[in-house]
Amino acid sequence: MPYETGAKVKLTRDVQLTSDDAAARIGFPGPLFLAEGLEGIVTGAAKGAGGFAQEQAAIFEQQVREAALTGLAAGLADQLRQQVIGHGAYAAGVGGRIRYRVRFENGFVLDGLEEDWLTAS
Fold this sequence. Notes:
single chain, 121 residues, alpha+beta, two-stranded antiparallel sheet, 3 helices
């Protein structure tokens, strides 16, 4: 179900904002997440690149996020994501998905949230 600008939504899953390395650089002991159920307002939407490569990149992201990698493994996964998956995901594929920008009640703004990460609130 597409969301209009101004629609109230909430997260259907935890969303990781930083890797272990990035969290350590800004003084956090581990990665920073936004919690499932956090409410916000849709401030924009854009149709993103789609296709097979994009779907595979999303699967990779989900598996890495669920694995909760630490240290060297997290760094290697980030490097793989940036060097291989990222280039293929945006260069290939036809079709697309709508991605949303949401301003959450805690002040965070996330861009690129997929529709299945959100539900109406």
